[in-house]
TrEMBL record:
CDD domains assigned: AAA (cd00009)
UniProt domain Sigma-54 factor interaction: residue ranges: 252-461
Any GO molecular function: sequence-specific DNA binding
Keyword Electron transport: no
Compositionally biased spans, kind Basic and acidic residues: 564-573
Keyword Transcription: yes
One GO process term, biological-process aspect: regulation of DNA-templated transcription
SUPFAM superfamilies xrefs: Homeodomain-like, Ligand-binding domain in the NO signalling and Golgi transport, P-loop containing nucleoside triphosphate hydrolases
Annotated keywords: ATP-binding, Nucleotide-binding, Transcription, Transcription regulation, Two-component regulatory system
Identification of the protein by name: Sigma-54-dependent Fis family transcriptional regulator
Region (Disordered): 226-252, 552-573
InterPro entries according to UniProt: AAA+_ATPase, AAA_lid_NorR, Homeodomain-like_sf, HTH_Fis, NO_sig/Golgi_transp_ligand-bd, P-loop_NTPase, Sigma_54_int, Sigma_54_int_dom_CS
UniProt-listed SMART domains: AAA, V4R
Species, as recorded: Pararhodobacter marinus
Length: 573
């Protein structure tokens, strides 16, 4: 006899319908849970960065944000400040939706929408309780009700202005609007119908598709949704090969200050014929910059002749000179590119110095671009490289930064190389797994951009077709791994990878205690020396040692040269 089940249970067991859903039919523990989301938050201690998946985050006191809000209201008025804060929240919601789409690719849109309140809570602005939401993408329908508890924005507004006669959670209300609109592909507007800032016990939030709010929907103009209904396409997990992007030989990826400065210098010297020398570590993209320089130079249609300076035979000088002369002739009307200039044999350096010697009143018919990966000044001082040739070719030097100094470019570069190598090898891939992405963001890349490209290409080849790239696919065991990987656990403690590979929970106090203990041990118990190593005053370190109960590790003898004190001679307080 068949067992009867309810319609609700049948809905739970049926294949998920991407275009329609109801939070009542979603399991409470449906991923991504709050713990799953916390795993995507990574603190790169000592690196000055916090990552939420591949989005850089910052920690900021709510009081500072409240002060900023107060100053803006006083300077430009309540209405303008409200619009700006709602737009900031809208953009934040868009980014959070992208995090869910990239890191957690459920086949269920209901679960993706349910993750919004969880990630909003995790950020610390407010505690969100979902009462209910339902949607139907085909009909353009959405309705949701939520409760907000302890809104940081409302608390700050109350502290500056007291009880208000209108809702005050402006930035917070923009977040679910952006988040839900991004996932559903049609405008969804959230509003506060009750607010703590108005004296209510909690904030009550209602979200509806834009048409349900009637004709008066000023948010559409604020969020840029008032043109062709602002409709997009609902999110769904990608299964196809990524679309081709701009991927010419001279595409330079990155927007960090260091790489932007190098790009500006290249653009500034592009219209000149004088020699350019590209300096930087191996793998920083010097040939890429050289090709870009050729494209924006005076002769972009001319030849680009690359010369590997390490290929010449130092023993057969005559043959090497003929080869070099032939390359120079080929470059006429274009660019002559010397790769790894310091590897050029000494005998050829003199020959090249004569060939590139400028003639008064005669414009050269080719441009020279060279690269140096080593220490050119040290090579000149030691006599390994001719000074006259070096100073001639380094008239316009451009320094390219190593990848570890442009970490903000990592998300863009990872996405670029994943799309590039997926297309090249015909391997459709969903994404890079969360732990693998965390490690890519922490790795130091001694081989720079070239190493990152190789790692992504390796992962594309090693991973299962249409599967995720995991740590074992990307890292071959040849890399020098970070000493520890840390991230935030759902409990609030720091997760640290031990040498054995096991993860243990560590609080900030434990990490701080270890740091002070190591410094004291290295200084043989001398607190003043330990304080100098830590960049602290003696008084500051004394206070922290007493607070953490580490006074037993302190030195007890007098400091050489006089009374014990900090490095400025002041006695400890």
């Amino acid at each position: 006899m068949s067992r009867r089940i309810s319609l609700t249970e049948a809905s739970r067991r049926a294949p998920r319908i991407l275009s329609r859903g109801d939070s009542k039919l979603l399991d409470e523990g449906a991923p991504p849970t709050l713990s799953d989301l916390a795993g995507a938050l990574q603190f790169a201690l000592g690196d000055g960065r916090i990552w939420l998946n591949d989005d850089r985050m910052v920690m900021m006191q709510t009081a500072s944000l409240g002060h900023l809000r107060h100053e803006m209201i006083e300077a430009m008025g309540m209405d303008q400040t409200r619009r700006i804060f709602r737009q900031v929240g809208w953009n934040q919601g868009i980014h959070l939706a992208d995090v869910i789409a990239q890191r957690f690719q459920q086949q269920d849109l209901t679960a993706a929408l349910a993750a919004g309140p969880r990630i909003h809570t995790m950020e610390g602005f407010v505690k969100v309780t979902t009462k209910r939401f339902e949607f139907d993408v085909a009909r353009g329908h959405y309705h949701g009700e939520f409760y907000w508890h302890d809104s940081s924005e409302a608390i700050e507004h109350l502290s500056h202005y007291g009880v208000c006669d209108c809702p005050v959670c402006w930035m917070l209300i923009g977040v679910p609007s952006g988040y839900t609109t991004r996932l559903l592909g049609h405008p969804v507007i959230f509003r506060e119908v009750e607010c703590t800032g108005m004296g209510a016990e909690r904030c009550v939030i209602i979200g509806r598709h834009a048409e349900a709010w009637g004709d008066d929907v000023p948010e559409l103009a604020e969020f840029g949704l008032d043109t062709p209904r602002g409709r997009g396409k609902p999110w769904k997990p990608p299964v196809d090969l990524p679309k081709a992007d701009e991927d010419s030989a001279s595409t330079i990826q990155g927007r960090s200050p260091a790489i932007m400065r190098a790009r500006r210098l290249i653009e500034r010297v592009g219209g000149y014929d004088e020699p350019v020398m590209l300096l930087g570590e191996p793998g920083t993209g010097k040939e890429l910059f050289a090709r870009r320089l050729h494209e924006i130079g005076r002769r972009p249609s001319g030849p680009f002749v690359a010369v590997n300076c390490a290929m010449f035979d130092a023993e057969d000088t005559q043959s090497a000179m003929k080869t070099l002369d032939a390359q120079i002739e080929r470059a006429r009307g274009g660019t002559l590119f010397f790769n790894d200039l310091l590897a050029l044999p000494r005998a050829l350096q003199g020959h090249l110095a004569l060939r590139v010697q400028p003639v008064e009143g005669v414009r050269s018919d080719y441009r020279i671009v060279s690269t140096c990966s080593g220490q050119p000044r040290a090579a000149v001082q030691s006599g390994a490289f001719r000074a006259d040739l070096f100073y001639r070719l380094s008239l316009l030097p451009v320094m390219l930064p190593p990848l570890r100094e442009r970490r903000d470019d990592l998300p863009m570069l990872i996405e670029h190389f994943l799309a590039r190598h997926s297309r090249r090898h015909g391997r459709p891939l969903r994404k890079i797994g969360g732990p693998a992405l965390d490690l890519l963001l922490r790795y130091d890349y001694p081989g720079n951009v070239r190493e990152l490209s190789n790692m992504i290409e390796r992962g594309v080849i090693f991973a299962e077709p249409a599967g995720d790239l995991e740590i074992s696919h990307l890292f071959a065991g040849l890399e020098e791994m970070p000493e520890f990987i840390e991230r935030l656990h759902a409990s609030g403690s720091i997760m640290r990878s031990t040498a054995s590979g096991h993860v243990e929970g560590r609080t900030m106090q434990q990490i701080e205690t270890d740091a002070y203990s190591r410094a004291l041990s290295a200084a043989r118990g001398n607190v003043s020396a330990a304080a100098r190593d830590l960049g602290m005053s003696r008084a500051q370190l004394d206070y922290r040692l007493r607070k953490l109960g580490l006074t037993g590790q302190r030195d007890t003898g007098p400091v050489a040269g006089g009374t014990r004190g900090d490095r400025n001679g002041r006695p400890p307080s």
